[in-house]
TrEMBL record, chains A, B:
The encoding gene: pqqC
Pathway(s) served: Cofactor biosynthesis; pyrroloquinoline quinone biosynthesis
Keywords (A to Z) from UniProt: Oxidoreductase, PQQ biosynthesis
Broad class of enzyme this protein falls into: oxidoreductase
Protein name: Pyrroloquinoline-quinone synthase
Protein's GO biological process: pyrroloquinoline quinone biosynthetic process
Cited function: Ring cyclization and eight-electron oxidation of 3a-(2-amino-2-carboxyethyl)-4,5-dioxo-4,5,6,7,8,9-hexahydroquinoline-7,9-dicarboxylic-acid to PQQ.
Length: 241, 241
């Protein structure tokens, strides 16, 4: 029988999941930050991760559609604004496309996502389905990877700027914005799960949801590593450098 | 503008998808058949593929739930009988568990599927979601990988029996049954799509559905290959040999 944790114990358990499983420890991410990838490998990362970025507002809209409280909806709605922008040419998805622009991809090619890795697509879609199908508490908890992203972003941006002459500060503008957006979102979601997980099994479901989300990020990098770092393993139909 | 194909041209296009993308050409499958995997790698394959087997009747039930015609339902229902059996201890899932038994896994461990690769889970779940969410025609078409399985199964069984002293004919009983079940199922589904795809875009959707399904099988082997053939890449939480 699992014991009830205090809210702070729950937070500590969530931070332990991040320490063990957040994708900043994935070999592909370590190589990306250290400058050990070539331009085509960085291109593959940006191309595939666009699909993740593009699904985030759909995930957030699916969650928004289940929030009964206008105050919660107002808070959650900001995530969609951040990704989609106030006007054409604004927002996180647009900023990601500036990165793929800088890496030489045509926008239509990136947006169509026909040639991303199947492993990317399945991992990202698994996240969207999780948010649609699980409890609201688990859906909110699955967003808690934002707790760990500011530190990872700082390392990533510093590493990429230091190590890749084909990546500029402007091309990485997406991450600058996330440094302020992610902590605000993470604080909100963390307060929510600490308050709303009122039974031991709910607390365990919150931890499992964050673990699941870490796995979806990790699996995206597994797919990239297998296809574009190990030679000869690009699956049929995926982008060929 | 895509032109309408004759039913036989559609069949030829579907066979071309299999020739290019069916997973018998995946490096992991080639190694499995050739005896180039060690026992732990074969164990990883059997453990992970159990999850695929376990989801197939759920996928078929989701499809059955959308078939309006009793005659079609009677035909499709047989797939569920084949996997679940007439009685306890019968059926394809049970036969797969005899393989994991023979490879030294506890049944509870296999059935819980807590330690399969996330990449396996996402690929399999992607297939189940596809069948639930797409048109009936696409759902039926996604089963057409059965067209290519008898040849692949013959090679796999012969290769595994010749090359692995830890695999017996009894442990591979699953595949014996599939040699008669798969062609019957494939003939039914192929007749269905040749008859029901009445517009060029429906024919293209049928081809895309089979391509999608091939990708889900390929991605499962990508995940296995990355985790258990390349050293040092087992993701957090997955089975450790």
């Amino acid at each position: 029988m699992t014991e009830m944790m205090s809210p702070d114990q729950l937070e500590a358990a969530l931070r332990a999941v991040g320490a063990a499983r957040y994708h900043d420890k994935h070999p592909f991410q370590v190589r990306l930050n250290a400058g050990d990838l070539n331009r085509d490998q960085v291109r593959a990362w940006a191309l595939n991760r666009y699909y993740y970025q593009s699904r985030i507002p759909l995930k957030d809209a699916a969650l928004l559609a289940r929030l009964e409280d206008p105050a919660l909806r107002r808070a959650w709605r900001q995530r969609i604004v951040d990704h989609d922008g106030e006007t054409e040419g604004d927002g996180g998805i647009e900023r990601w496309l500036r990165l793929t622009d800088a890496l030489g991809f045509a926008r239509d090619y990136v947006i169509a996502a026909h040639h991303i890795l199947p492993g990317t697509r399945y991992a990202v879609d698994a996240y969207v389905h999780f948010v649609r199908e699980r409890s609201l508490l688990e859906a909110v908890a699955s967003s808690l990877t934002e707790m760990f992203s500011p530190g990872a972003i700082k390392n990533r941006v510093a590493g990429m700027l230091a190590n890749y002459d084909f990546v500029s500060k402007e091309a990485l503008a997406y991450f600058d914005k996330r440094l302020t957006q992610a902590p605000r979102d993470a604080d909100f979601a963390l307060d929510y799960v600490k308050r709303e997980a009122r039974r031991p099994e709910q607390q365990q479901a919150v931890i499992a949801a964050l673990t699941f989300k870490c796995d979806t990020l990790w699996a995206q990098l597994d797919a990239l590593h297998h296809a574009y770092v190990e030679p000869g393993h690009i699956p049929p139909g995926a982008w060929q450098p």
